[in-house]
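Narrative of activities, Objective 1.

The group set out to show that a structural description can be obtained from nothing but a protein's sequence at a throughput compatible with the screening campaign. Below is one input-output pair from the validation batch, recorded exactly as produced.
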Amino acid sequence: MNDRNSNTPTHRRNMLVMKASAGSGKTYKLAQQYIKHLLFYTDDSGNVLPRRQQDDDRMLNAHRQLLAITFTNKATAEMKDRIVKELYCLAQEGVESDYLDEFAKLPGMNEARVRELARHALDELLFDYSNFNVSTIDSFFQSVLRNFARELDRDFNYDIQLEEDYAVRMAVHKFLLSLGKTGQPTPVDIWVKDYQRHLIRGDVEKKKWKFFDDGGDLLTFAKQINSELFRACMKAVRDYLGRYEDGRYMCDFSKIAAFKKLMKTLVERTRERAADGLRELRGVLEPYGTTGLLNFTLKNWYQTGELEPFKEGFLKEVNEKKDDKVSTQFSKKANVESTVVDHVTRLLLQQFQLITVEKFLQDIEDNLGLLGLLATIDKFLEDYRHETNSILIGDTNELIGTVLDSGSDFVYERVGTTIAHFMIDEFQDTSTKQYENFKGLLHESLDNGNFNMLIGDAKQSIYRFRNADPSVFREKVDKEYRNDIYQPPVDPDAPASINYRSSRRIIEFNNTLFTFMRERFSGVPTVVETYKDVKQGFPKDIDEKKVPGYVRVMLGDYKRMLHNQGVAAPDGADGVDGAAAQDDVDVLDVLPDYLLKLHERFDWGKIGVLVNSNREGNAIVECILNHNQQTTGPRINIISGESLLLNNSPIIRRIIAMLRFIDISQFTAGEDDDDTDDRYAVNMQKKRAADQRLYSSMNTFIEAVTARGDDAVANGELLVKSLTMTPKCQGAEGQGDLGEKDYAAELATLLPSGYELTTLVSIVENIIARFKDDPAACADVNRETTFLMAFQDEVMKFSSQNNGGSVREFLKYWDEKKGKLAVSSADSGDAINVMTIHKAKGLEFDCVIIPFGKWYLEGNGQNMERYWIPKNAFIDVLKSLPIDTDDLDKDIVPPLLSVMKNHLMKLDEYYTLREEGKAFLDKQLTDLLIDNLNKTYVAFTRPCSELHIFAESTEDKNIDKRLTGLLSDFATQGGLLRPVREGDEDWFEYGEISSREQLEAKRPPKKVVATPVDITCYPVTPVPPSIKVRLDHASSSQIKAGIRLHSLLSRIGDCHDVDRVIADAVKHGIITDDPSDPCGLDNVNARVREPILSGTGPVAAWFDPANKVYSERTITSAGKSWGEIENQRPDRIVRRPDGQIVVIDYKSGERNDSKYCHQVRGYIDKLREIFPGAPITGRIWYTTLGLITDERGNELEVKS
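Output recorded for this entry:
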């Protein structure tokens, strides 16, 4: 795969690992390297040379050798857009490019030569856009998996289920229906009851009794199945809970029963140990108890004469005050010695500690069934996969790991890939499994002497909840590729990175703050390593006089300080209702006035409000909307997720109402295909049908009232008549006849016509088309085009993921997702951006406000949080406890156990956990600390010009563990911030406030490469009668055979590939041994193999190895209308050595000269624009008919 030399290259360091901080241009560098390797290559001596010689017009297709990996679909689109725009700027004379100067400095290069190379590269990229390899890591691995369907026990046309939550919901649904079917309680039934008790005990006040209502709590719990931890351990869990007999999996709960018995035994041993301690304590207290020299709790306990445990509250006080508390339990006359006090204190502390041990062991026993529940639900999830012939998007990493175990050489051979260079962005967000999967591919590339690039910043890894593991980028990469990594020469006196985003004072503030933070956590090696190069420099040409930058930190008393700053904060203005937490009210009270003051210098769209949670974001939006509603002065422009929700669009709600109408009609007509055991679904549908009839009645009445006026008597008569006119749904009880309104006719107007394919997408299109006929509704359609297009995108996405999907299934999906589905807003325009810090990653704003800067840095305030602890770590925890565990059988210990975070922390404090147990706990706590610090870093590095932080001090005793505590200490000890007013210890600042004129002058003019076009209407085109649905089996089989035959031909490059491709297709089931199958082996040999290998005739000429072939290439060109793009995709383009070009289209059905010849002539016209002057002809190969025609319909010989 070495792109220029097939010989083994001498070893060079070809791995560029770019670890740089926020604003340093990491993505800019990736685009630069991508374009550089499009235009140039590096020979074995390390010389950078142009890929194309002067006046060389050959198609090189260098982009096929490059793969850029991003981590979101949005980032993929942005990266493609950036590369194309930069190539365009490089290719056009007189257009400035950020990369031109650097490329022109390469040996033998100048501006004209670089632009020539860029023009050719851009033409090739657009001509072959479908092979523009910029994708997410999941998309890349999916393309690999497609070639291993048989090994994965899937059909070659399996579906990818992107909505993992939907799949888990279906598994939970089937699981709930399976309960109690045997008549006798099974272990699974008992686990469910234990889980119900767990929910009730854990949150009695909130009355979480909805377990069997909708499975909501269970569903949230079951989603853990999709975590990388569970995917990696699920095989071990299945092996633990069952066994294989004669190739069949059989449940076997003997191990978990034995372990549960062991936990009961250990709980009893703990209680016995506590009782022994109490006996010892009674012996120590006897000289004082019998003489009346004890006070309070010890006196009462001793006088009972029983070994009752002490109340936990008393023991907690002893734990906090130690001897001081115990000494008060003795009379002053006792003259007790300190050794006795110490002895009693030690025994009481032992009791306190054993309470935690007992709670820990009891909790393990109580929650043991959680693992069994997950494993059982996972079994139903696996059934769902096979029933739907699908894999979940999250399965990709595990499945690709299985594939790659066969060796990367084999994978490359099977996939047929030509990728030479891998460039991966945001590598700090890679999961451990993704890294393990990619590692072999990177080694393969490096062994062939190819350039690779990894870009990331461990300080910005904030997606651990999506399995991101920053240690991969922080530590593992350097060890794995230590012999391949090279670093470009840098100035030793220069900072680790330059920040091109922020103003100087913001850079200095962050440098000082995060250095201060690193020193505070200097005892945590991971923090020190992550933030060792946190200091950034600024560009040499920065002009701090224009916009020096400004930071304000507000620690409380907001109203008074705002008044002093000249910002009015009216008394009693709430700006928020009870939904916000009480300690948020002060911030929300002053926020609207604060924003209006900032708006004097910043446009609304330049202000970003960053929050830590959706709850905080909702409070901000509600506050601003309330201000806008109540104020008589200036309003605040804001775009929120709420305003962009599809469900808030009137036209979308009308479409959903129509779909419910169709759904009810199908349900009541007996067309329901749901599980008959699902009584909840049946009852819900009946209720929905009744509701719809009521709504229809009221709608009829309202329309009639509008037409008749306000006569009360007449209106009463109308109401009666309206109720009798309500259409009857077939099968509903107690309803009259259809009456004056034809129900079937109403339904017919919503469903597609007879000749049109009745799909979910076409039904929605038909509904929209009906609105277009209504002038009033048509205005809504055109006004809400954006919502309509986003809604249809969701409909099409759902259909593609659910084998078309029914109206019923889509409505279920809609009811679940409608609170999240929204119009995507790439640019808020002139409106404030309110978003979470996680969503703001990668973005920048002129001014950033952090209204609730008081999140936890150490911990998260959730002591009830649970961890899944691995088997070996759990065994180490058990062996750390002061109870006998010598009879522990390791084989009965589950692979994973659910434990409470607070229990582990206390056990470590009391007994110091052993190696693996300690390492597990430390990693959990360190990971949480790193996540919180990184979240802070991401938030504080978003601003370009100004940063405003509200970090109100609270009465929380854990304030030192919060961001508020860090900022408070930094303000007084960091030596950088100064009080806004002399003597004030609440508000601090650094830098200088800039005027609007200064801010406007700072912004560089944007290069306009592409002009966006607003779509102001939603066109609906009826399906022409020529498009009909073929329902007969023979036609369907022929179409499928044609698709398989087409796929086969697309993989044949020249005649040397024929036998290999046919053998591979036989192996994968694409070619069958059925003589009647058009894609059977006999037919393929006769109609494909023989004509290609005959050596004579047009088919053999098309597959001559001397040809240059473009197979399945997309031709992109401008359409007839402004802004319209046309894509055409001929099956095969052949460029012969003599310069002749032949475009071939494969057809497997009946001959249709008028249609197919017109299509091929269109290909020829486009190719003449690309290859002016070249002789171009067209051919249509009817593979199943053994017939070839030219673009005019003239027949040619297949073999001559």
